[in-house]
Amino acid sequence: MPRHARETLLLLFTLVLGAPARADDLVRTIQAVKPSVVGIGTYQRTRSPAVQFVATGFVVGDGRSVITNAHGIPANLDLANMETLGVVIGNRGKVEFRPATVVARDPAHDLAHLRIEGAALPALALGGPADVAEGQSLAFTGFPLGMVLGLHAATHRASLAVIAPIVLPALSSGKLNSRTVSRLSAPAFPIYQLDATAYPGNSGSPVYDPQTGVVHAVINMVLVKGLKESAISTPSGISYAIPVKHVRDLLEQAAP
């Protein structure tokens, strides 16, 4: 057989055999990631239900740090009735609530750093800014419908459609309003647009490499849509994520 024919056959075998391997990578990665994904909510013993879900979060660092979206953290807790902020963990069909404390917030990037009590949980590794590129395959795991269907984390595939600035100028002066002007005055930063649909409960979900589980971004719906898609009432198939660089910066605020 001619050499070029052998090389062509080898390439075909590599492509055919390589695809299932990549799919298997995601199956294994999901199992490794899920124990690090938690619900964010509040607990009040006299309330029904006692636990109210507000967002998704994920564990980093020493296993007691949790990252989520800042907008999901209640501005005020009902302290008179002993309402407590914390994380919700699904453990063999049972729901466990761990109290948590907010140790740092980053309103500009809509991120919050919580510290939980109790035993450390499995932590996810954080990537770097040079680890992502447009077209790259990604996945995110979280609770798209909160606890409506039980505390069962769901995973969605995605690809990085584009890296773009968070703020886009209005096409005409007629589209400017006080909210738009105030947002335009804030510092712009790159965000990741994903070709996948995320839901409100996904806010705070880790966006990670399907093969390694390394986190590259955090799903964010509220902050970004208010800036980039205010003219679109029901966008479909598009989600946004905050680059993990800002998670690293937030964690450094609590470093000794």
UniProtKB/TrEMBL annotation:
The keyword Plastid does not apply. GO terms for molecular function: peptidase activity. One of its GO terms (biological process) is proteolysis. Coiled coil: none annotated. Keywords: Hydrolase, Protease, Signal. Residues 1-23 form the signal peptide. InterPro entries: Chloro_Bact_Ser_Proteases, Peptidase_S1_PA, Peptidase_S1_PA_chymotrypsin. It holds the Pfam family Trypsin_2. It comes from the Bacteria. Belongs to the peptidase S1C family. This is Trypsin-like peptidase domain-containing protein.
